[in-house]
Structures are given as structure tokens and as C-alpha cells.
Amino acid sequence: MLHQRIENMWWNTRRAPNMLLRAASSVYALLSRFDQKQRLKRAVRPSIPMISVGNITVGGSGKTPFVAWLASELKGEGFRPVLLSRGDGANNQIPHLISQYSKAHEVGDEAVLLYRLTNCPVIAGRDRIAGAALAAEHGDILILDDGFQYRQLERICDIVLVPSEGVGNGSLLPAGPLREPLSALDRADIIVRSGAAEAGPLSDQQEWHWSASPGFVRDWNSSDDILLEASKPIHLVTGIARPKRVIADLHSLGFNIAQYDRFADHHAYTQQDVQQLMQKHRSIVTTAKDAVKLIPLWPCDMPLWVLEQQIEAEDGLARQIVKIIRAKA
Fold first, then answer.
1. Given this model, what pLDDT does residue 109 score?
2. Residue 30 placed within a domain
3. DSSP for 78-109?
4. Quick check: 155 and 144 in contact, CB under 8 A?
């Protein structure tokens, strides 16, 4: 509930945060500028060209599906992309190459999901400089997930995703959702608005559009291609930053959400969580990010329904990214 109250405050554009939080934001701004300068002093160049995909706000802006889309586009252009993830949700300092046997609680939910979505080499670990060195053994171009503020690695293309709603109240943490001031967008090569843009432009740069729209609800616990029809009430389970989009997507597909369990972002599901869900006697629907953590605990004879997404990118976006890569590499 506290997390939800904070999020509601961040995205409320009609009411300014209180003075104490605004003062804390000023302190955060000073510390952030100092931290960024220190990181730049230690920056190293990876052995292979690197693209960074990040954001300027806290929480979901569609980075994981965008990285998967970008990897697919680069493979189509003849590149051999390697994906590098910090491994959020796990305590994994030493970078590891993800395999089909990797567990989300060991290497991070987003890393396991990227491996499943892309079939590309994925490396997870908090030491991303060591991870970049390992990546050079497995491909010819590196995609750093959530890397806009990670200045220790030099990049040839900086892509920043901004959610369709914009930047909330426009304040820095903790008064608002901004990790950096909007002026930081000046160092981005590509600004991408994820979702149907609702707010106006944030800078003088061209903003590209990209969206992950609702597709199907599919059983990920079965090798058969089984889809869930929107006929009976469902039970929704999420452990992501901004679940409102998931709720809206399911409603747009005609599903009736009768019950809902919301956990914090990167929640580590337990067997007790699964046992409690089994008592609901409804179809359990979740996100792909949650599914990679739930499947190892899920009964083999019970369907786990996952909301899948369909990707739509503005014409020319992929070509522009490739153009920047080839010009700078």
C-alpha cells in the first residue's frame, strides 16, 4: 500500500509534492550529479560496440520487451547481439551466461525472460564491466539493459524510453519518478515514447514511437499452444512496477478480473504464494516477467496463463538505430 501511495503521488500532475520531499529531491540532485561525474571518470570502452537501453523515470517503461525487439531487429541486419542485464531480483555479483536451466531467483527475472524471448546470449551480473568483457566471447554487439545512468561503460548509441504518460509530476526522486533532470535527455541518441503517447514532447529531439500492445493469454506451463478465452472471471497476479497497464490490457481483451494479488516489483515468489493461489479456484493470469519466476514452483498439471504482447514500432526506428551503430562503430 505504501508503494502504491508513493506511485500515485509521483504520477499526480495536479498536486505538488510536499516541501520535505522537494527538499530531499534537491539533495538527491546534488548527489546524483556528483555520482555521474565519478562514473564518467571510470568509464571503459567494451571490446565490442555497445547500445544502452534505459529510462529517465523509475519503473516500467517497457525496457525488457524493447530490448527483445531490438535484438531481433539487429539479428535481421546480420549482427550477433549479446544482452547484458544487471540481474535485478537476484544477488549475483559475478556475471553468468544464462542457460535454459538458469533460475530467476539466481540470475534475475528480466535476464531469464530476455533469454526466453530472444534466444540470444544473455549475461547477468551486477559487475557489468566484467559482463561486457564476457559478452565479447559470444557476439559482436552488446545491448545493455537499463544502462542510461550506468556511465562506467562507453556506448555508441544511447536509447532512452519514456512512458506514454510522460514523466509524472516532473520531480526528481524521492518527490517524483525522475532519476535525472529532463536535461539529461540531451545526451540520448534516440528517445522512444513507449505506448500510445498521451503527453507532449519532452525535448527538442525527435521522439520515436514504439508500443507493446496486448496479444493473447497463453498457457506457459504447457507445450501445446493453448489460449485462454475471455469467458470466465480470472485471478490476476503481478509483481511489476506499474501494473495498471496490465489491468487495462486485460480489460481491452474482454477479461473480467475478479480477484487481484499485487506484489512489489521483482517479488521473489515462494511455494506458499503458489499454494495460496491454488486455493483461488480461478484461472491464474500473470505477466511474462512474473511467469519465469512462478513456473519452477507451479504444479505441472495446472495451467499458468500469461498475457503476451504484440510489438509495434514506428516505421524507420530500427533503421535509424542501425544507421547510428554503423556510423559510430
1. 92
2. no
3. T--EEEEE--TTS---S-EE--TT--HHHH-H
4. yes
Burial readout 170-203 (b: 16 or more C-beta within 10 A, e: otherwise) = bbbbbbbbbbbeeebbeebbbbbbbbebeeeebe
State the amino acid at position 189 in one-letter form: D
Query: What's the pLDDT at 214?
Result: 92
Where the chain has pLDDT below 50, the residues are none
Residues 249, 158 share a domain: no
Question: Does this model's pTM top 0.85?
Answer: yes
Residue with cell 556475471: 95
- 83-92: pLDDT as tens digits: 999 988 787 8
Q: Is 2 exposed, middle or buried (0-12, 13-18, 19+ CB in 10 A)?
A: exposed
Full domain range(s) for residue 126: 43-211+312-328
pLDDT at site 287 = 97
Half-sphere exposure of 251 (CA within 13 A, CB side): 7
Q: Which of 195, 178, 187, 202 lies closest to 58 in space, CA to CA?
A: 178
